[in-house]
């Protein structure tokens, strides 16, 4: 800590705070701090305000638990979206990835996590109850499980499909197989097995 | 921009601000933004405040132009430091590197840049006048040029040595040669040449 004492408190304080960010080590934090000292004052203040605002203004959509600043998120408010197809994702950022693909025009439900017994996360900590309510009271014809293709994501999808089995909706999950642009030579065993199991008619 | 419209304005605003940081692309910025949404609110606010404070509280030391929050930086205020040896560096972060080595007990002078005609930076934009004043009025016996070992850093050191030639101080520069822990096999020509030119008696 000797080296930090030589520095202005505000600088080493900012370096400490930046170090807490994921993927930011001490050297990067110092570089960022010196960058923020060098840019126009307004730019540094804009970043500080943006951080404050993300915590003061952003909350979860009352319907789908996506991030938003109003009661409902822009997707739930959009009359153009297909209100009969519901896509279930783990996190708002998964929703963002799906939106970027522009391949889905329905609405979403964000679980805000996945069932992970080893991390002490059970179904009660997720937004599963509101999801079941939506499916019971809504006019959905299909619920797409778009949880991550991991043990915990798959387990969560399985749990949800049991919870939703009694309702007259079609339950689907994202296709698995080889990825566009990849080469078979480097595909691993699970990818090949998924691709064979789910093979499609030409 | 389609994907961003789907997001709360505060989130995409923060992502935009984070993208302006050096080494932070859009994906990293999104990851950081979601991290800041997840951490305790106090931690996000602490980062925002730290950024504000680095601009509102930090300024340059009146004597050496290091960063500080008082009139004088902690090094200039320290009565233990050798006031007869002055080390000239380009930037506050260079000073920090030298301090971390704990090999220098004198005081510093920060130029706040280097002479770089191609970038339009001349001697007048640096703190050279205050440096010459300090050397003229101080009791220094040695001035160490610790500018970077680059064309511009060397040029700046040469310019300074001309400016300071009339004063009764010894002018030195940092030693150059092979680096501790390196292997000769991978040293480049300049390193070997510097090491041979500056060879020391055993």
TrEMBL record, chains A, B:
CDD domains noted in UniProt: TOPRIM_recR
Ranges where the Toprim domain occurs: 84-179
Zinc-finger ranges (C4-type): 61-76
GO terms, biological process: DNA recombination; DNA repair
Keyword Zinc-finger: yes
Keyword flag Zinc-finger: yes
Pfam assignment, any one: RecR_HhH
Gene3D superfamilies, sorted: 3.30.60.80, 3.40.1360.10, RecR Domain 1
A single GO molecular function term of this UniProt record: DNA binding
Annotated keywords: DNA damage, DNA recombination, DNA repair, Metal-binding, Zinc, Zinc-finger
Stored SMART domains: TOPRIM
Task performed by this protein: May play a role in DNA repair. It seems to be involved in an RecBC-independent recombinational process of DNA repair. It may act with RecF and RecO.
Family under the similarity heading: Belongs to the RecR family.
Protein name per its UniProtKB record: Recombination protein RecR
Originating organism: Stieleria bergensis
Lineage, highest ranks first: Bacteria, Pseudomonadati, Planctomycetota, Planctomycetia, Pirellulales
This protein's encoding gene: recR
């Amino acid at each position: 800590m000797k080296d930090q004492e030589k520095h202005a408190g505000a600088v080493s304080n900012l370096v400490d705070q930046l170090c807490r960010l994921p993927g930011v080590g001490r050297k990067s934090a110092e570089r960022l701090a010196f960058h923020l000292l060098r840019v126009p004052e307004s730019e540094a203040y804009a970043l500080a305000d943006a951080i404050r605002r993300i915590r003061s203004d952003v909350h979860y959509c009352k319907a789908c638990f996506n991030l938003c600043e109003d009661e409902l998120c822009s997707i739930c408010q959009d009359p153009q979206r297909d209100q009969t197809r519901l896509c279930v994702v783990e996190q708002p950022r998964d929703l963002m990835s799906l939106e970027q693909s522009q391949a889905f025009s329905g609405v979403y439900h964000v679980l805000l996590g996945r069932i992970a017994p080893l991390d002490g996360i059970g179904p009660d900590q997720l937004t599963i109850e509101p999801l079941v309510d939506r499916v019971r009271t809504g006019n959905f014809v299909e619920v797409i499980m778009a949880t991550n293709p991991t043990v915990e994501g798959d387990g969560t999808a399985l749990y949800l499909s049991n919870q939703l089995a009694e309702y007259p909706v079609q339950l689907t999950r994202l296709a698995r197989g080889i990825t566009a642009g990849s080469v078979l030579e480097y595909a691993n065993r699970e990818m090949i097995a998924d691709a064979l199991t789910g093979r499609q008619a030409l």
